[in-house]
Design goal:
The chain is an alpha/beta fold. The protein has one domain (3-224): Aldolase class I (TIM Barrel). It has 12 helices and 8 strands. It has helices at residues 20-33, 53-67, 82-94, 112-125, 136-139, 145-152, 167-176, 190-195, 206-221, 225-245, 247-257, 274-287; strands at residues 3-7, 38-41, 72-76, 99-103, 130-134, 157-162, 181-184, 200-203. The chain has an 8-stranded parallel barrel, surrounded by 5 helices. β6 (157-162), α7 and β7 (181-184) form a beta-alpha-beta unit. α2 (53-67) runs parallel beside α3.
Length: 288
């Protein structure tokens, strides 16, 4: 389960329906061109919190059918509705996903015992490996070393997608739990996390920048920090340009520019303006 995972995008038509052909093309591009090691399916980048349970299930089916066993697959099943999370966890496990993952419950200010109960309710429902998805900037949930430790006591919990800039906590986690998988979740901090010996990374921009990201990770593992730093600088120039233009919309437009039917983002996300489309193509020409 080590390596780089794309936080997989999903192609939707203008009415918000899944574009199966486009989704399959995105999967193939990630595997054949970006050369990623795995796919993180139905995460934030897949617009998971904007779609129905049945759409989530259909995406799991299409991705598994297209990818087969060629790369590792992680199914993000987290939901404010724990019954939906359990339902999705069972569904993805039956499809033979390599692991499941779930974002911490958000919006309501749950205490840690409630968060722990949420996770263990999902874990008790399936026989599958599990990866915590920690993204405090979007959930408002900050867990400390001891709380991660309580979750790690469950043998099904094999690791964490750590999408936070707290590198002191990241180092402490790496030192305290060397047997657990730690995945960096911020693409722009890949090198910094790699120096702390993470097992891999899960990122949105890997959908288009996967090859360069893999180079950064592999160079860091070999101790070639100066070379990795140069590539991280180029990646961060790319990431800055994408963020300024609209994250998900721009990645989809870049994929379309490369011949992939990446479709549209679901409302209330807005479509790129004509100027935004041209900017996305300029970004692709400059950095990819």
């Amino acid at each position: 389960m080590k390596g780089l995972f794309s936080a997989l995008m999903c192609s939707f038509d203008e009415q918000g329906n899944i574009d199966e052909k486009g989704l399959r093309e995105i999967v193939r591009y990630n595997i054949d061109v970006s050369k990623i090691d795995g796919l993180y399916v139905n995460g934030s980048t897949g617009e998971n919190f904007l779609i129905s349970t049945e759409q989530k299930k259909r995406i799991f089916e299409i991705v598994k059918d297209e990818a087969g066993d060629s790369v590792k697959l992680i199914a993000q099943v987290g939901s404010l509705n724990v019954d939906e999370a359990v339902n999705l966890a069972k569904f993805a496990t039956d499809l033979n996903y390599d692991a499941i993952s779930a974002v911490t419950p958000f919006y309501y200010k749950f205490d840690f015992e409630e968060i722990k109960d949420y996770y263990f309710t999902i874990l008790d429902s399936v026989d599958n490996d599990f990866i915590i998805y920690s993204i405090p900037a979007l959930t408002g949930v900050n867990m400390n070393l001891e709380q991660f430790g309580e979750l790690f006591e469950n043998e099904k919990v094999i690791g964490v997608k750590f999408t936070a800039p707290d590198f002191f906590l990241l180092e402490r986690l790496r030192h305290a739990y060397p047997e657990k998988f730690i995945y960096s979740g911020f693409d722009e901090m890949l090198l910094s996390a790699s120096v702390l010996n993470v097992d891999g990374a899960i990122g949105s921009t890997f959908n288009v920048n996967g090859q360069r990201a893999k180079q950064i990770f592999e160079l860091a593992q070999k101790g070639k920090i100066d070379e990795a730093r140069e590539l991280q600088k180029v990646s961060n120039d790319l990431i800055s340009a994408i963020l300024d233009n609209g994250l998900y919309q721009t990645i989809k437009e870049i994929l379309k520019y490369k011949g992939i039917s990446a479709g549209f983002c679901r409302k209330p996300m807005k479509a790129l303006s004509e100027e935004g489309v041209l900017k996305a193509r300029e970004i692709a020409d400059t950095y990819l």
